[in-house]
Design goal:
The complex is a heterodimer of chains A (380) and B (252). With 380 residues, chain A is mainly α. Chain A contains 16 helices and four strands. In chain B, the strands form two sheets. In chain B, strands 6-7-8-3-9-10 form a six-stranded mixed sheet, sandwiched between helices. Classes of the chains: A mainly alpha (380), B alpha/beta (252).
Chain lengths: 380, 252
């Protein structure tokens, strides 16, 4: 077990807890930078999905995990960002300008949607944001001069300062860059008064107010900032998906984002990334299992001479290939996480870390109290 | 001039007149206590002072300024801090974060400088931290600094509320039942701290309290209320022996 000796206040507001911490993050940085040279191009593409989803997760984490405001309409912000970015690119604006305009427009939209949040919380706010998302989806469909409606809108590969990001590897680095920047900015906010004000609003509005927090301003900032991040994610999303259509930005996508932050672990930046890994990599994982289980079990059956194993493998493969199974597995995991690990994957990560750092003295009861986390009056 | 004046304060909730024509002055440097049976309107007065409720009639004057219509989030910056009867801490934050939030009224950084965590923000954060550490030392909270509030026992939470209020650098401290839920020993500690807050920090204290031992130990003046109306005002002994007060508590 390592004990942290604090000798200056600087240590508590640094980006990393200590040098050891910084070393591990450095190693992680090396790993993600080196990853595209090691893995197959297909998986490089899938990993850029992780980064884009992590941006979306970060956006929702600020709102749900830190400020305690629920949104069921975040897919709409993603859509606004994506369409705005694609539209401005079509108008011939440079990539950076189009991206920044998209972020600005989404931020403004977030601010406007945030206004009702000043009076509503919990389920009422969820319904209000849901209504907003439905309206925006309708706008995507009908505003054909900009969005081309159901005909769709193709998005070219990004060209930034004359550099074309036309393959999966270069796009991977583009997404990674923006994710790291967004993580850094969000971490900065969270270690300054704004982040503390958000947490205060989440845990007790009345006390926050009495300590001088202007609820209206900080809730609006949270909504606008969250939407801005979503706009950035939308710009990258547009390139990744290459073809925008209104039926991409549905309520299901919003729910997937909510699932992402809950599975990842509410109230932690790690949670946004863990959740993104889960949400982005589960579908390819299911696909791999669907393809490999029947084959491997069939070859095992012929090798061992036990034929039922082969038919079992075929049955599993057929089951996994059924439509809706993916959604079912998502739902099952969500239920299990809420029942067994309210702090999400980040909570599990903390436990594993503690297990190794205190081995062989680990006590399961260390985390006992934190089970009440999800039961707070967050969804009041 | 008094630090705080409540002038003919009244509030109606529908047909119920919770506070009815209450006037009192709090002088600089004293401990002023409001007592009264349950439902007398004590906490309602606090909520009007921290501007969560707006009085139906009457005026609140603090430090020469009329604060009757000031928005609630401006109160802390003016120099009024409060604690809550049912603890209202930020439960899933550490004690340190709770106290740092209380420095919010003294924040000078803008959103964009915080976004980039500019050196000015860093400098302010260090200043806030130093101010908070001063209060942590004052109330002996060092060992709990990095604990989440949910993991702290009730007594410590109560002290944390007091600490958080002190971190705003108040001129007037509103304590809503500081001893409720505390054992005898903790209540004695609380009495010492309230005296220290008055003498060492020079903060004026306005308190709502039921525990008469604590009230007589620390209060300079006491106001007794019943059904929103003032019954008696004076030293703790005078008020305790007042016949109307005895009737309000014991009936008859």
């Amino acid at each position: 077990m390592r004990f942290l000796f604090k000798t200056s206040y600087e240590q508590d507001i640094g980006l990393f807890r200590d040098r050891v911490d910084a070393f591990w993050y450095g190693l992680l940085a090396l790993l993600v930078v080196g990853l595209p040279f090691v893995i197959d191009e297909y998986y490089v593409g899938e990993t850029s999905w992780v980064f884009i989803y992590a941006l979306c997760g970060l956006s929702l984490m600020v709102l749900v995990g830190y400020t305690g405001l629920v949104s069921l309409g975040h897919a709409a912000f993603l859509g606004i960002g994506a369409y705005a970015h694609a539209y401005f690119l079509q108008q011939g604006l440079p990539w950076i300008a189009a991206m920044m305009l998209a972020v600005l427009i989404t931020t403004a939209a977030g601010f406007v949607v945030g206004l009702p949040a000043l009076r509503m919380t919990g389920i009422y706010l969820a319904i209000a944001t849901l209504a907003f998302a439905v309206i925006i989806q309708e706008v995507f469909t009908r505003w054909e001069s900009v969005t081309h409606g159901f005909a769709g809108m193709p998005v070219d590969k990004p060209v930034i300062f004359g550099v074309t990001f036309d393959d999966d590897r270069s796009f991977y680095y583009l997404c990674l860059f923006f994710l790291v920047v967004a993580l850094w900015l969000t971490r900065n906010l969270l270690r300054s008064p704004t982040g503390r004000a958000w947490i205060a609003i989440r845990d007790s509005e009345i006390a926050a107010q009495s300590m001088g927090v202007n609820l209206a301003i900080y809730k609006s900032i949270a909504f606008a900032y969250s939407a801005g991040l979503m706009g950035l994610a939308g710009a990258l999303f547009a390139h990744k998906i290459a073809y925008l259509a209104p039926d991409i930005f549905t309520i299901l996508l919003s729910i997937q984002f909510l699932l992402l932050v809950i599975v990842g672990g509410l109230g932690s930046l790690h949670g946004a990334v863990f959740g993104a890994i889960f949400v982005a990599l589960l579908p390819p994982l299911i696909a791999i299992l669907r393809d490999s289980i029947p084959d491997s079990l069939a070859s095992f059956a012929t090798a061992s001479g036990i034929t039922p194993i082969g038919s079992l493998g075929a049955a599993i493969g057929a089951f996994l290939a059924k439509p809706g199974v993916e959604a079912g597995i998502f739902g099952l995991i969500l239920v299990l996480v809420i029942l067994l690990e309210p702090l999400g994957m980040y909570g599990r990560w903390l436990k594993i870390k503690l297990f190794f750092s205190t081995f062989p003295m680990y006590k399961r009861a260390t985390f006992k109290r934190q089970k009440s986390y999800m039961r707070s009056e967050r969804l009041r | 001039m008094s630090l705080f004046t409540a002038d003919n304060l009244s509030i109606n909730f529908g047909g119920i007149r919770a506070v009815d024509g209450v006037s009192f002055n709090v002088e600089k440097g004293e401990v002023f206590t409001i007592i009264g049976p349950n439902g007398a309107g004590k906490t309602t007065i606090f909520n009007m002072m921290s501007r969560i409720y707006t009085p139906t009639s009457g005026r609140l004057v603090f430090d020469g300024n009329d604060i009757t219509t000031v928005p609630p989030h401006r109160i802390a910056a003016l120099g009024i801090a409060r604690t809550f009867q049912n603890i209202e801490l930020f439960e899933h934050a550490t004690l340190l974060q709770n106290l740092l939030l209380a420095r919010h009224a003294h924040k000078q950084s803008g959103f964009f400088s915080e976004l980039l965590f500019l050196p000015s923000v860093r400098r302010m954060e260090l200043e806030h931290r130093a101010a908070v550490e001063h209060v942590i030392d004052f109330l002996d909270l060092q060992q709990y600094r990095d604990s989440l509030i949910v993991n702290l026992p009730y007594g410590v939470r109560k002290v944390t509320e007091l600490a958080r209020a002190l971190c705003t650098n108040p001129k007037l401290l509103l304590l809503d039942e500081p001893s409720s839920g505390l054992n005898v020993e903790e209540t004695e500690d609380m009495a010492f701290w309230i005296q220290d807050i008055k003498t060492v920090l020079g903060v004026t204290v306005l308190m709502v309290e039921h525990d008469m031992t604590l009230v007589s130990a620390v209060s300079d003046r006491v106001l007794a209320l019943n059904y929103g109306k003032p019954l008696a005002m004076g030293t703790p002994q005078e008020v305790q022996s007042h016949p109307e007060v005895a009737r309000a508590y014991l009936g008859g």
